[in-house]
Amino acid sequence: MRVAVFATGGTFDKEYNELKGELYFKKTHIAEMLALGRSRVPIRLQTLMMKDSLSMTTSDRQKIASACRLARERNIVITHGTDTMEDTARFLAGKVFDKTVVLTGAMVPYKFGSSDGLFNLGSALALAQVLPPGIYVAMNGRYFTWDSVTKNKTTGVFEEKAGGRKPSATPGSSHPLHARREKASSLGRSGDRCPLSRGIALKVSR
Fold it and tell me: By the 8 A CB rule, do 201 and 191 touch?
């Protein structure tokens, strides 16, 4: 399974100019991060833009949506600025179907030793491989559906939106092996009446 990774900028990919004390964009660090994390997942990396998410326009979001629709991969990760990540997720929900798209980012630039970027990228990459088709946000070790997420501007943490629906999708639920295990588990629960059910459950769960 190959995963498409689209870089769009955000704090995730910012550099620090020590002379001016400013953050700026140069190029994405994703390839370097994947190598550091010893990732063995086949990916196709493409930089769509390098922008602060507060500067994102409808045209930018349309470009992201088009890249997702045109991608041959059905599993996609998008690195994005955190300030308007939920806005882009909501936009994509009405444009991209039948693909698993996970948006992620960072509160601290990767080039800073205290960055959460590497952790978030790894989480998003894993989730993109197991979640069923849909638009998701992966931050702070959690994942959210596009319509249930919000960024707490006070704490800087992504959380479930008040009144939002909880993610109903179970990671891996669409995978055939998962389905067989679920079936075997069900048989095992009623195994008192079926002499073969316990054997089936044990065989599949290895």
Answer: yes
